[in-house]
Amino acid sequence: MGLFILKRVGVMILTALCLTFVVFFLTNLFPNLEKLAKTQGNARMTDQEVVRWLDNNGFGDPMLVRYGQWLGVAPGWVLEDEETGEITGRCIDFGEDPADAPRFCGLLQGDWGYSTVSDDEVANIVGGRLLLTGKLMGWVLIVMVPSALIVGVLAGMREGSRMDRSLSTLSIATTATPEYVSGVIFIVLLASSTAGISPWLAENGWIEGRTLFLGSSRSAMDDITFWNFTLPVMTLALYGMGYIARMTRASMAEVMTAQYIRTARLKGVSFRNIVLKHALRNALIAPFTVIMLQIPWLLTGVVIVETLFNYNGFGWTLVQAASNNDIELLMAVSIVAVVVVLTTQLISDIGYVYLNPRIRIS
Question: What are phi and psi of 66, to 5 degrees?
Fold first, then answer.
């Protein structure tokens, strides 16, 4: 197991390097750099002024050299003004003696750069937004995973039964409904003071406020409550649980037809014990991978829900960085997303071996 994990970590590092270089290459194409120069300098810059600005800010080096500087494996660029003698560079902070500045200052040294839009450290922005989305992810997983597993197991225990057909139809309906549709429906039904059930509940004195839930989760960025955080959690959990439930149902139905299940029935083992002690563990192998794949989706694919409910999390930051051509911030969120995806894949592989020791690692 240790050798397997070590090999997978090595593959993860190589994959992360390849993916981050692709992102670095695409974000550092000349049209993007030209747009950055005109945004930071003057929108009426000539081509010569754009090239001069890029050279003065370290964008004139070859692509591989700049990628090494961003990683922190190549010395940072240093420029000296011939007229004033002022020394500027990637590793020289404002007010610091250039002689005392480090030679390497990149990702490996913990220097993620500064956002060109907000002038704040990228690490602070990414850390704060990641924490917000992490809270949303945690509550969604708490609601989604147990609900999906229960629905899938109940549907797969007796394939073809009325319960199976009903729960399967429900699972398909939730998966086929996009988040922006279910989110709007929840807002209208549960968070509107003029439509849905909120006015009726308020008239009968069953709720204190005007609405059952809050349609905007902006306040949840500071303080999460049941009132302001339920709707985005329900929207994401409902969309994700259908797929997990369908995979669980298919796996459970396949396991229930296995020979050892038939033998257990012939021996007189109760149906409850057959499901819990014999079938459930093997049936969870395939859904486990699907559950792990939900984590990258919840990290970067929830921008629609975050925008709909005015919750500025990690996915929202990724889209804003791409829209504003914020290169340093875009690189930072990209590397975080890559690491999360690769880590979840590693955990998924380890979980496969744990759930079924018969799986051999080649």
Answer: -70, -35
d(CA 225, CA 240): 22
Is the four-CA dihedral 87, 91, 92, 96 of positive or negative sign?
A: negative
How confident is the model over 306-361, as pLDDT tens digits? 989 999 999 888 888 888 888 889 889 988 988 888 888 888 877 777 766 665 54
Whether residue 345 sits in one domain with residue 317: yes
**Do residues 90 and 127 both lie within one domain?**
no
Residue 214 and residue 193 in contact, taking contact as beta carbons nearer than 8 Å: no
Determine the Cα–Cα distance for residues 327 and 115; give it in Å rounded to an integer. 8
* Strand, coil or helix: 268: coil
The token pair that represents 196 in the structure block:
């849905």
The pLDDT assigned to 274 comes to 83
- What tokens appear for 217 in the block? 């989760």
Q: What is the pTM of this model?
A: 0.83
Task: Tell me if 263 is assigned to some domain.
Answer: yes
CA–CA gap between residue 253 and residue 257 (Å, rounded) = 7
Q: Which of 76, 109, 142 is the last residue of a domain?
A: 109
Residues 93 and 129 in one domain: no
For 55-76, b where at least 16 C-beta lie within 10 A, e where not — what string? eebbbbeeeeebbbbbbbebbb
Which structural domain, as residue segments, surrounds residue 85?
2-109
Closest CA to 286 of 242, 239, 241, 254: 254
